[in-house]
Amino acid sequence: MPVDDAARLTALYDAHAGSVWRYVVHLTGDRTGADDVVQETLLRAWRSPRILEQDPATMRSWLFTVARHLVIDEVRSAHHRHEQAVSELPERARSDDTDALFEAILIEEALATLTPEHRAVIVTAYYGGRSIAQAAVELGVPEGTVKSRLHYALRALRLAFQERGVTQ
């Protein structure tokens, strides 16, 4: 920061910081927050060279207006409206397993509507994580039969879910 800028900023602070700070404290009642508002107000004045060239009375009213707008903006902000100080932290939310339980019951009911052969191929391939070849070996049927049963089992399962009100 050049010497001239530093001197202007120091002069601005010395001349107006105290009165702006008192004004903000009067508006908000928050002494700590007033420091931030004063800093931002003086920074905006320093960034506006035409303001610094005005007479002191006009500059002071401009500073008060800027400070008031900053206070209003803070009050209107979502941060200010939704933040509530509490003496204790709330308990952590625990996950609710109700949805998972209902889904498990729904799947169990839908699987029960399938033929034993279709149910076996679905359970082996999808829930067991087996490939077509592994499922064929485990179930003792050809790979083509596993593919065919999977196709028809999935169609029947989709229909069973639709009958229960489940849509994609």
UniProtKB/TrEMBL annotation:
InterPro entries: RNA_pol_sigma-70-like (IPR039425), RNA_pol_sigma-70_dom (IPR014284), RNA_pol_sigma70_ECF_CS (IPR000838), RNA_pol_sigma70_r2 (IPR007627), RNA_pol_sigma70_r4 (IPR007630), RNA_pol_sigma_r2 (IPR013325), RNA_pol_sigma_r3/r4-like (IPR013324), WH-like_DNA-bd_sf (IPR036388). GO terms for biological process: DNA-templated transcription initiation. Gene3D superfamilies: 1.10.1740.10, Winged helix-like DNA-binding domain superfamily/Winged helix DNA-binding domain (1.10.10.10). It comes from the Bacteria. Residues 12-78, 110-158 form the RNA polymerase sigma-70 region domain. Signal peptide: none annotated. One of its GO terms (molecular function) is DNA binding. Keywords: DNA-binding, Sigma factor, Transcription, Transcription regulation. The keyword Transcription applies. PROSITE patterns: SIGMA70_ECF (PS01063). Belongs to the sigma-70 factor family. ECF subfamily. This is RNA polymerase sigma factor. It comes from Microbacterium saccharophilum.
